[in-house]
Amino acid sequence: MGTTTTKNDTEKTGAVTGDAAADTKPEERAAAPEDSTPDTTATEEDRQEELLTEDAPGTERAGLARGRGIAAGAGAVAGAALGLASLTGTWAGTVLAERQTVLGQIKLQTGKTQDQIAAVYTTPWHTTALVNGIFAVLALVVTGAVLLRRPQAAWTRAVAWGGFALAVLGLVIAGGMYLDLFASAPKLSPGGGS
């Protein structure tokens, strides 16, 4: 039960047109790849780059999109690093806390203060909390700026949201440390002994 295809049949379907089509056999036409199908394998990054470069004129489009992507990625990573630093503490916080400890000891020895706990413990503790809180606020600002810019690569948004979450957690912990919510300052008994 073979079927034959004539030139009139192929012109009606629009599959093959012109005189060259009449010379080809039906088997050759079926085996030939279709060149008219659009390529739908564009990646997510290609689509996002097209969105970024849609408004840019001429040859500057690719460079402009790449620059925005790099800035957003760098901001996301920096924000995540600042958020992590707000949780773990920094060298600057340690140095400032040690400085406050030394100043408290000097005040005790010279008689300028009678509150030994505040001079040696509470003030350095609050200094550490303040420095960590500053890092948390910086992380919130940086990651917030990255998240407000649209469109972005998926990894940039993910890193920025991670940094934002770390910054919020760091800010909560720093606030709790500063307000002595997690541990109250030690107190001396009225007799000063055991």
TrEMBL record:
Ranges annotated as biased composition (Low complexity): 1-21
Keywords linked to the UniProt accession: Membrane, Transmembrane, Transmembrane helix
Stretch list, region Disordered: 1-61
Residues annotated as transmembrane: 70-92, 129-148, 160-179
Claim: DNA-binding is one of the keywords in the record: no
Domain of life, source organism: Bacteria
Acidic residues biased stretches: 42-53
Biased composition (Basic and acidic residues): 22-32
Protein name according to UniProt: Integral membrane protein
Species, as recorded: Streptomyces ochraceiscleroticus
